[in-house]
Amino acid sequence: MTEAFYEKFQRELKLLSIDLEKKQMDQFFEYYELLIEWNKVMNLTAITELDEVITKHFVDSLSLIKAKKDLDSLPYNIIDVGTGAGFPGIPLKIAFPQLRITLMDSLNKRVNFLNEVIKKLELKDIASIHGRAEDLGRDLIHREQYDLCVSRAVANLSTLSEYCMPFVKVGGCFIPYKSGKIDEELTEAKHAVFLLGGKIERTERFLLPGTEAERSFIEITKVNSISKKYPRKAGLPSKEPLK
């Protein structure tokens, strides 16, 4: 099992020009084992087959290096909004240990899992916090404090931008992970991004390594400090996305 894991993972990492040491590979395998163990008693992921976890969770998370080429060298302070079972934040931390990572999720049970992973893998400069983006985005400890905000959460770009842009410092950026066709969504979100102090810089489109699955990263730079109006109260960004 472990040999098959290492072979497939290394093969796909090469497609991203990422080279990991054995200790890091071991950490990924232990993460996989913890994910499967905890998934028996709580809903963390529908993806549990080893091959699929490698490609659709680990490699997908690390493919951020396509949009941020210096991810492997600079000590970015990153918040992962709606991290769920820790994607992309934990894979990014394992692969690029110099990053400072904050994992944020609204479900306490998931935060307990994340804390267990952090402890078992002996990861440093990473923390998990429990809360909703609409509330924590107004907390001065987190508001406009991060170089980079990432999210694999499933939501339209207008909604996701209202969740995430409040965390990004001016000059920093928000990069959502998107799948499938996104042109219409991009067009619809342009004004919302403007209202939130952002500017859509570029879109990085690619196929997930080893698959035919379409992926996109949208790089949104924070050009102005965000209005005190945002984020709106809990529930509104998803019910009534900014237009």
Automatic annotation (TrEMBL):
Top-level taxon of origin: Bacteria
Keyword Coiled coil among UniProt keywords: no
One GO MF term: methyltransferase activity
Pfam families cross-referenced by the UniProt entry: GidB
Location(s), subcellular: Cytoplasm
Residues where S-adenosyl-L-methionine binds: 82, 87, 133-134, 152
SUPFAM superfamilies named among the record's database cross-references: S-adenosyl-L-methionine-dependent methyltransferases
This protein's UniProt keywords: Cytoplasm, Methyltransferase, rRNA processing, S-adenosyl-L-methionine, Transferase
Principal localisation: cytoplasm
Coiled coil: none
One GO biological process term: methylation
EC assignment: 2.1.1.-
Listed PANTHER family: S-ADENOSYL-L-METHIONINE-DEPENDENT METHYLTRANSFERASES SUPERFAMILY PROTEIN (PTHR31760:SF0)
Role this protein plays: Specifically methylates the N7 position of a guanine in 16S rRNA.
Recorded family membership: Belongs to the methyltransferase superfamily. RNA methyltransferase RsmG family.
Protein name (database record): Ribosomal RNA small subunit methyltransferase G
Organism: Clostridium boliviensis
